[in-house]
Amino acid sequence: MTSTGAELPGMREDYRSASLDAADLAETWHAQLLAWIADARAAGLPDANAMVLATADDEGRVTTRTVLAKDVDEHGVTFFTNYTSEKSHQLRQTRRCSVTFPWLALQRQATVIGTVELVSREDTLAYWRTRPRGSQLGAWASPQSAVVRDRGTLDDQLATVTERFSGDEEIPPPPHWGGWRITPTHVEFWQGRPDRLHDRLRFRRTDPGWVVERLAP
């Protein structure tokens, strides 16, 4: 075992920065999530809206990757991606996913579990117009999740689409690119506490409405 490997059992942080009780929560899960994203941004955390997205195919194989939340409201959490990617194929198969926002520097995380749906083309276009031109070109150039021969292949594809749109002031979104909205059934807010007795408060959707529950750590 390497020296780093030998150190793994003892690598841990003792969380003591804050606590979380039901009285501390906003009235809705989305208001609470937006507040914690704002806290992370105010603390200078990079990519405060980054979330780890977990999806599975119809045979139960699970995949995770990091994406960026681009909208949070009472309807759900929205992110944008290539519709031909592995994540989109899996979302179409199961229509379910989970995301976790890992604000480790704040000793916090939030997890959203729910079903997914495609956002409207109008919503996709509205977000697309906010993207830098380079990101727009990249969306056209990359066959996301496909095997490519080498980096040069991607660079060549980027050069091709850059030339294609060189005379266009606005670049349209690719037909294979757009948004997914996660409609939550459960949203958990986790605050690290000493001795691994963390605070876990969960919004759970029921027929009458949302309820808040405390979970054992």
Describe the structure.
Strands 1, 2, 3, 4, 5, 6, 7, 8 and 9 form a nine-stranded antiparallel β-sheet that branches. It is built from six helices and nine strands, in the order H-H-E-E-E-E-H-E-E-H-H-H-E-E-E. It has helices spanning 3-7, 29-42, 86-94, 121-128, 133-141, 151-164, and strands at 50-56, 62-68, 71-73, 76-82, 96-103, 108-118, 177-191, 199-205, 210-215. It has two domains: 15-129 and 175-215, Roll (Pnp Oxidase, Chain A), CATH 2.30.110.10; 130-169, no CATH class. The relative contact order is 0.19. It is α+β, with helices and mostly antiparallel strands and 217 residues long. It is globular and about 60 Å long. Helix 5 crosses helix 6 (151-164).
Short description:
This protein is α+β, with helices and mostly antiparallel strands. It has six helices and nine strands, in the order ααββββαββαααβββ.
Low-pLDDT residue intervals, each spanning 5 or more residues: none
SSE string = HHEEEEHEEHHHEEE
Quickly count the domains.
2
Mean pLDDT equals 96
- Summing up helix and strand content along with how strands pair, one would put the structural category as alpha+beta
Q: Say which CATH homologous superfamily of the largest domain is assigned.
A: Electron Transport, Fmn-binding Protein, Chain A
Q: Architecture of the largest domain, according to CATH?
A: Roll
Proportion of residues in β-strands: 25-35%
Characterize the biggest β-sheet: 9 strands, antiparallel
CATH topology-level name of the largest domain: Pnp Oxidase, Chain A
Number of helices: 6
